[in-house]
Amino acid sequence: MIAVNDQLPTSTLLELKVGDAITSGNQSGIIQKVEISETDEFLMFLFQLESNHIMVRKLKQVC
């Protein structure tokens, strides 16, 4: 089981796929669907589980 949060590298979040087991705080489960949206400021990862979802927002690095 992989613990997901905003401290996890973006590359690791991008590798997660349907069927992977994840946890975040008091929520955990098997990924049923992954949605990734992007703005100028951040990437939003929405992992749909069996009965709930986990959302992770990663700020983009600005150079």
Written overview of the protein:
This protein is mainly β and 63 residues long. The protein is 10% helix and 48% strand. It is built from 1 helix and 6 strands. The strands form 2 sheets. The protein has a 3-stranded mixed beta sheet with strand order 1-2-3, with no helix packed on it. Strand 1, helix 1 and strand 2 (21-24) form a beta-alpha-beta unit. The N and C termini lie far apart (33 Å). The mean pLDDT is 93.
Q: How many distinct beta strands?
A: 6
Determine the structural class based on helices, strands and strand pairing: mainly beta
Q: Quick check: average pLDDT? A: 93
Strand content: over 45%
Biggest β-sheet, characterized?
A: 3 strands, mixed
Query: Which outline best applies?
Result: elongated
- Specify the helix fraction band: under 10%
Radius of gyration: 11 Å
- Number of discrete helical segments: 1
Low-pLDDT parts are: none
Strand order of the largest sheet: 1-2-3
Order of helices and strands: EHEEEEE
